[in-house]
Design a protein that fits this description.
14% strand, binds pyridoxal-5'-phosphate, Aspartate Aminotransferase, domain 2, 37% helix, Aspartate Aminotransferase, domain 1
């Protein structure tokens, strides 16, 4: 297989390892567990350390099995370069560690994965100001920008209330102002959406979710799309300016986050995630169809107060989602009518498992306010549109009729 022809998403993912003369003709990239890598010529070791020649030195900054996964994810995102991390949060944390300094300002969507919300609070205590805005309209982002704004951070579809950011217009705004535009693509995954198409500078994926897809390994990735001109970024250290400009960002992130903080992905996890990624498109086609069928059934039921899924015509960003995404994702959330206890409902599901992961092959359900969003308190939840009875559903690949029946029968039972 050569690079000369552009293949489809799954073909490219499946065959990406083989483009690099894989050891012994192995079909999977082998799991390299060695922590360090030896050289017959000590001078060669020195040139690798000095970045003058590619090569592995110590597992915290790079490993061949992890590098093969980085290459796969980079192809999925059509990126310039990708770094993998131990978790999705480590990839997001790397932004704070490597790119932000005291006195800087961040504009972030207010509709966020709970742990990212918590991270911005932490960063806020360390001398970086963070403005949380309604990113479904670019004008709120624009109003928050100051001369100190270094990055704008959004999720594609927000977890768990499914608000969709004004992705393309925010991209244009950031390009005009020379601001680094970071998009967390976890909820759409590179199969449903490539943030590079709306001008993202950096794309985050929690590999734990749809890319790995089986709930058996944690991982995260950060992709530099190559679109941002790093010569406009004031926080690049002189030592990384010895590379061509396009490499400044990724070189500094690899060193400052992976080397200094060490949340490196292990080779065994990288192998699990790489194998899982081979079937991502197949799984997501099924999951998106399942999510739409169950969401439509719930929306039509009078015992349900509200359903939030970008695939429903009633969703405020249905039109923009149709325009930007291949499909609407595997996650939706809903509220039951007053008087129906969300715990009673969840306990009556036979297939939906009460658990906190998402993007798994199995359908997972969770009462949001009482679990993942418990710590932030009722006031902040209300500002994010999180009702106390909100149930988040991550639909799996079960047979569609079985899932529709399961969610309907549980309503009959409460
Ligand atoms: C799960 C998730 C993360 C964090 O990923 P972990 O691997 O659990 O650390 C980040 N962003 C979004 C949108 C997520 O759903």
């Amino acid at each position: 297989m050569t690079d000369s022809k552009k293949y489809g998403f799954t073909t490219t993912t499946l065959h990406s390892d083989r483009q690099k003369a894989i050891e012994h003709g192995s079909l999977h990239k082998p799991i390299h567990t060695s922590v360090t890598f030896g050289y017959n010529d000590a001078r060669e070791l020195a040139t690798v350390f000095q970045g003058k020649q590619p090569g592995y030195r110590y597992g915290r900054q790079g490993n061949p099995t992890v590098a093969a996964l980085e290459d796969k994810v980079n192809k999925m995102e059509d990126g310039f370069a990708t770094i993998c991390f131990a978790t999705g949060m480590a990839a997001i944390g790397a932004i704070a560690q490597a790119l932000l300094q005291k006195g800087d300002h961040v504009v972030s969507s207010a509709f966020l994965f709970g742990n990212t919300n918590s991270l911005w609070q932490t960063v806020g205590l360390q001398g970086v100001a963070v403005s949380m805005v309604d990113a479904t309209d670019v004008k709120h982002v624009e109003a928050a920008i100051t001369p100190a704004t270094r990055i704008v951070f959004v999720e594609t579809i927000a977890n768990p209330r499914t608000q969709v950011a004004d992705l393309a217009r925010i991209g244009k705004l950031c390009a005009e102002r020379g601001i680094v535009y970071i998009v967390d693509n976890t909820m759409t995954s590179p199969y449903l959406f490539q943030p590079k198409s709306v001008g993202a500078s950096i794309v985050i994926n929690a590999l734990t979710k749809s890319i790995g897809g089986h709930g058996n390994a944690l991982g995260g990735s950060l992709t530099d799309t190559g679109l941002y001109d790093w010569s406009r970024f004031p926080n690049i250290f002189d030592t990384y300016k010895r590379y061509p400009t396009v490499q400044w960002g990724i070189a500094q992130i690899r060193a400052k986050s992976l080397r200094d903080f060490g949340a490196s992905l292990g080779p065994e996890a990288a192998h699990h995630l790489a194998v899982g990624s081979e079937t991502m498109a197949l799984r997501l086609d099924r999951e998106c169809a399942n999510a739409l069928a169950v969401a439509q059934m719930l929306e039509a039921d009078e015992r349900v107060a509200a359903v939030y899924y970008p695939g429903l015509k009633s969703h405020p960003q249905h039109a923009i989602s149709t325009e930007l995404f291949r499909s609407y994702g595997s996650l939706f959330s809903f509220e039951l009518k007053e008087g129906i206890d969300c715990f009673d409902y969840l306990n009556r599901l036979k297939l939906g498992i009460s658990a906190s992961n998402l993007g798994d092959t199995r359908t997972l359900v969770i009462p949001v306010a009482h679990t993942i969003f418990y710590e932030m308190g009722a006031e902040r939840r209300a500002s994010m549109g999180i009702a106390e009875s909100l149930i988040r559903v991550s639909i799996g690949i079960e047979d569609t009729d079985d899932l529709v029946e399961d969610f309907r029968k549980a309503l009959d039972a409460v």
